[in-house]
Design the sequence.
């Protein structure tokens, strides 16, 4: 199978929840190049949500992207999990240049009405 050649710059999407961290690297058009997660690395249960699992997932995803020719990343981080910083640091350790880090966690604009107050 021939390897897909990518642009030099790509976008990394890190979705970090309390239970897992999912990392997707796409080109600037939005086409997925590679993806990885704590579960794909081999962790199961509560260990998927650890910073160490996020670090290994980011290294795996970053190395696959480097093989395709990616040299720099724009990083979008979403979610409240503990793997956010660990994944960003892992990209730096494998010599991928990070040009921008942006937090895209959705924030409610006073969303749904609260439940009626409970009376005893």
Sequence:
């Amino acid at each position: 199978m021939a390897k897909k050649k990518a642009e030099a710059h790509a976008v990394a999407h890190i979705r970090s929840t309390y239970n897992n961290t999912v990392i997707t690297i796409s080109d600037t058009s939005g086409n997925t190049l590679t993806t990885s997660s704590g579960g794909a690395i081999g962790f199961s249960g509560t260990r998927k949500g650890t910073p160490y699992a996020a670090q290994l997932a980011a290294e795996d995803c970053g190395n696959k992207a480097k093989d395709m020719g990616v040299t720099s990343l724009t990083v979008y981080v979403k979610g409240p999990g503990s793997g956010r910083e660990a994944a960003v640091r892992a990209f730096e350790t494998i010599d991928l240049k990070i040009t921008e880090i942006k937090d895209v966690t959705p924030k409610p604009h006073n969303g749904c009405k609260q439940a009626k107050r409970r009376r005893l």
Summary: The chain has one domain: 12-103. The CA atoms of residues 25 and 64 lie 9 Å apart. The beta strands are 9-16, 21-26, 32-37, 72-78, 97-103. The chain is about 25% helix and 30% strand.
